[in-house]
Every structure is written in structure tokens, then in C-alpha cells.
Amino acid sequence: MNDLNIASSQSTPGIESDTNAGILRMHGDSYPENSFEFFDPIIQWIEDYLRLRSEALHLELRLVYMNTSSVKAMMDIFDMLEDAHGRGRAVSVAWYYDPRNERVLDLADEFREDCSFPFDIAAAPQ
Amino acid sequence: MTGGPRHYIDEAGLHALIGHLLADPAHQDNPLRTPLNDLFKHSESQRERLERLVRISDGYHSISHRQTLSLTEQYDKQLRRLEKLARISDRYQNSLRELSEALRDSALHDSLTGLDNRRSLMERLREETERAIRKGTPYGLAILDVDRFKSINDQFGHEAGDKALCAISEAIQRSLREYDVCGRWGGEEFLVLLPETSIESAMQVVERIRTGMEQVQLRFSEDDTARVTASFGLTRYRLGESFSDTINRADAGLLKAKMEGRNRVVVAA
User: Which residues does chain B have within 8 Å of residue A68's beta carbon, measured at their own beta carbons?
Assistant: First the structure.
């Protein structure tokens, strides 16, 4: 399967996937004009990975600002991980935030609410 | 039919009895035997039909019940998701709003003293000038410059100079009326805008600032203390002129106050 390598822009986060290591990284602000179009390949990659591989999947997030449709896309992604987790797959999320912006901590915590898989939120200088 | 206790028959017993009678050769020639046999068969098939009907109906009922349950579940789940989405989204929106307020604040205020900065003062001057023209009530305008400020910097260092500017800005604000505007115009220059104020009243306010500043004791360390004074140029907006003319006139007054020996107010009428 092909890896993702999308450079960040002013309104879209940078995305990198590493199929062999089982890691997906997302960082930056996310308010794309067309969220569905932007997130579609990301959701597709996660679906493919969970279907074609049996190794663990780890999401490394450094997301800062998100618009509503990006929030929805992230909720969909976490739902996919939750389903996979329910089927016995090893999935985990680490969300790093800039300690100067504590609000991201609260927001990541809101996202984590319904997730039963390992979901760490940690301060890390950007 | 009249009421009364309903007669429940023992269905299984009746069934067995009739089966037994029909099979008994003693009743072989009874004329009732054939119609009874037909009735017996008919009753049997009716009973089976009824049971099948009940079974099917119960099946439908339970399917529809399961569907309702799962729809309710899905609906509740979607509702929870939607609420979560709105909650997270609202938080992002709030943090953006606060950020834009902070940016606006830093764009209009002096970061050291917290007073209006030059950009904000220009905006206020524009507004006050429009209001003065509209209502025919000119404002007073004073520019003050801290006397020998350079010597504080030279003697005690720049940090002391910054502390002094903060103490001075607090002293100025203490002497102002609620609707007066004060801002940092430049390095150690402050501008005071006195809306709808006569030159006599403006003079009172500015004198209050001047004497208030004389009271300020700057203390940089145990032994290092200093006092500050300021010189003032005061004028009043003249209806029809541009506010830069008013500023120039106040500046000229300030220069005169410096030349006449500092720590004084010169009215440039």
C-alpha cells in the first residue's frame, strides 16, 4: 500500500504515514475548504492498513486548530480505531500539544472521551 | 347472550373423547358419526391455522420491536456524536475568538505600560475630532515629556527606565477623569486627550497630573531612589482644523515648557 506524504499548508495539516512502522502522523492547523476531500485518502489509508496488515497502528498527532468538519473527520477516525480495538487490534494515539497552548490539552481530552484504546496526551515543545 | 361465567372446556380431553367415539365400532352406523367426523377435522385444521397465524404475527411483532430498539440506539449514538462535535467545535471557536481579542489588544496597547499605543491614540483622535465637529464641543490635548529621562536610564539602567515609565503612566492615570484618554505617544512622551473640555478644566487636570508625578518616588533598589517631573504642552482643538495641527500646537507648548525650565505646563492657545 502507498504511503501518504502531504505537506502542510496554511489551512491543511501535514500528513505522513509509515506503513512498515505502522505510524500515521498529522500536524498543524486543519481548516480545509473541502474536509471530505482532504480526509478521504487519510481514512482510506487507515482502512487499508487495518484490513491488509495485522501489526499495530499508532497515530501521532500534533494538531492545533480544527474547523468543525475536521473535528468530525477526526471523530470518524477515532471510531474506526475503536472498532479495530474491539476486534482485538493493537491501536494507539499520542496527541502532543504545545505547553504554551493548554487549550489543546482540553480539546484532545474531549476527543479521548469515548475511546477505550491507549490515548496519551502529552506536552511537547513544537 | 347473557353473561355469566365463561365455560372453559378441556380441549385435550374433548379431542381424545371424540377421537375415541369415532373409532368405536359400536357407533359405526350412527348417522351423526359422518358429520361429527367432518366437524372434528374442520376444527383441527382451524386450530392449526390459528396457531400458525399467532406464530407469524408474533414473529413480525418481535422483528419490529428489535428494529425500533436498534433505531433508538442509533439515534442516541448519533445525537451523542453531534453533541460532542458541537462541544469541541465551540471550544475551538472560543479559543480563536480569545486569540483575536488578544491580538487586537496587543495591536492597540503599549506592551510596557498597557496604555493605548500611538496607533490607538490616532484612532481616538480621529473619533474625538469628528465628535467635536459634530457637537461643537472641542477637546483638550496635552503632550507631556518626562524631564531628564535619559539620566534615569544612564544612572540606573534600562530596566529602571522601564519601571519608571510604568510608575509614571500609573501616576498619570490616577489624575485623569473617567472619560479622559491617555496613551504612550513615543519613548517617554505621553499624550492626554480630554474630551469636551474647556481650556480651564483641561488646565486643572493637567496640573493635577504634574503635581501627582512630583509625588512619585521611584525606588530601584534599597539605596537607589529618584523623583521625576514632566513638562507639558496643552492646547484645545480648534473647530475645522486637522488634529495634526492641534498636536503641533501642543508640541510647541511642550518645547516652550522645556525651555522655560521644565516641570511646568505651557498653554498654547
Answer: 85, 89
